[in-house]
Amino acid sequence: MLTKFLFFIISGVGKSCLLLQFTDKRFQPVHDLTIGVEFGARMITIDGKQIKLQIWDTAGQEAFRSITRSYYRGAAGALLVYDITRRETFNHLTTWLEDARQHSNSNMVIMLIGNKSDLESRREVKKEEGEAFAREHGLIFMETSAKTAANVEEAFINTAKEIYEKIQEGVFDINNEVCYSFIVI
Ligand SMILES: Nc1nc2c(ncn2[C@@H]2O[C@H](COP(=O)(O)OP(=O)(O)OP(=O)(O)O)[C@@H](O)[C@H]2O)c(=O)[nH]1
Ligand SMILES: [Mg+2]
Questions:
Q1: What is the C-alpha to C-alpha distance for residues 181 and 150, in angstroms, rounded to an integer?
Q2: Dist. CA 123 → ligand 1 center (Å)
Q3: pLDDT tens across 85-95, in order?
């Protein structure tokens, strides 16, 4: 019972809203729970090259966890999202990160996202705490707002750039160099 509740509250951190802001440049105020996995895509340019990002948006709820896991394998990048106004979503990061590392390519680039930065008055997690967690676990970090669009472009594009650099250095061997798969968890 308790476990169920803990997983349930991870839902609603803003994963689907981040994706919608990135692909459609709009914000959806009503929370439609993601069922299973949803998909979005957008072209970006890095170093003069057109790169397609295909993004899998996963459900935060425990019931869908096994479905989520099957999408880790092909992912070059992951956005690991918590809600800065709900500490329990931050406390849960270690579990998600372990799960992601265990089921993904070891070179997968992980970006930690503290979302809902527009809700400063309701903040429960300091920016410094996000930075420290990211440093400790070797992740890139940003605070975003899917509502105001602050840092949303940067979050996806910086993750893609990191993947691009790894490919250039030859440490990341992916089949398709102009199409990166992302997973939002
Ligand atoms: N103020 C504010 N609200 C946000 C932001 N991002 C998302 N929300 C709100 O938070 C709620 C949940 O957003 P979703 O994107 O559906 O959350 P999710 O992580 O996809 O949730 P699941 O699919 O259930 O895992 C919605 O009511 C959004 O309107 C943000 O940056 N700022
Ligand atoms: Mg969702």
A1: 23
A2: 15
A3: 999 999 999 99
Nearest CA to ligand 1 atom 28: 29
Q: Give the confidence band of 9 by pLDDT, cuts at 50, 70, 90.
A: low
Residue type, 62: E
Task: Tell me if 16 CB under 6 Å of ligand 1.
Answer: yes
Q: Are strands 37-46 and 49-58 parallel, antiparallel or unpaired?
A: antiparallel
- Distance in angstroms (rounded) separating the CA atoms of residues 11 and 34: 9
Mutate which of 8, 10, 16, 90 for ligand 1? The one with the most ligand atoms within 8 Å of its CB, which is: 16
pLDDT tens figures, 16-44: 999 999 999 999 998 788 988 999 999 99
Tokens 């996000």 sit at which residue?
A: 130
Secondary element (H or E) of residue 136 = helix 127-137
- pTM, two decimal places: 0.93
Residue 59 near ligand 1, beta carbon < 6 Å: yes
User: Tokens 């089921």 appear where?
Assistant: 103
Spell out the residues 6+ positions from residue 158 whose beta carbon is closer than 8 angstroms to its own. 111, 140, 142
Task: Give nearest CA residue, ligand 1 atom 8.
Answer: 14
